[in-house]
Design a protein that fits this description.
The chain is mostly beta strands. It has one domain. Helices cover 0% and strands 53% of the residues. It has no helices and four strands. Strands 1-2-3-4 form a four-stranded antiparallel β-sheet, with no helix packed on it. Strand 1 and strand 2 form a beta hairpin. It is elongated and about 40 Å long. The two termini are 17 Å apart. 0% of the residues are buried. The mean pLDDT is 86.
Amino acid sequence: MDYFFIGDATNNGKSELSLSVWKEGSFYPYKPFWVEEEDTCIKNHLFIFQFERNGLKPIILALLKF
């Protein structure tokens, strides 16, 4: 993780936890049918989590391509 932000990232009036993470891979076991093998290059991924009573709920898990 190289950056995090707590604030209203989704413009819904509620604070979320946003994480910028550099990691390998893109799809885990849920690859689209046109992807034949896992991407092992290190790329930046954005994770946004909603605060819940019992923890965090993932709401956006995205690969950022530059």
